[in-house]
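re: ur question from yesterday

yeah so i grabbed the chain u mentioned. its 95 aa long if i counted rite. heres the sequnce exactly as i have it in my notes:
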Amino acid sequence: MSHTAEWKVRLHLFEDDDGTTKAHMVLDTGATALSALGTAHCHPADVDVPEIGDELAAGRAMDDLARQLLHAAELDMQGADAPMRSMREPTARIL
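ran it thru and got these structure tokens back, copy pasting raw so excuse formatting
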């Protein structure tokens, strides 16, 4: 069962007036789209390094998207009557 797919991910980063960096990520599979959010806030006592806020906000948006994908896969497996196991638990491999 060979399969090739191309998914597109767009990541938008912006900072508002109160110093909160926001990340908005959109995954487009061609058949569906998922949207994820992440934020990071610079404490007033911290040195302002925009890259850190970008990395935190983007990473949190990616984590949100990953959780949504895992949840969607679990629902798809249930709908396909596949044996259910948690997507977070690794399978043991015998070498």
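noticed a couple things. The CA atoms of residues 7 and 29 lie 5 Å apart. also The two ends are 24 Å apart (CA to CA).
anyway ttyl
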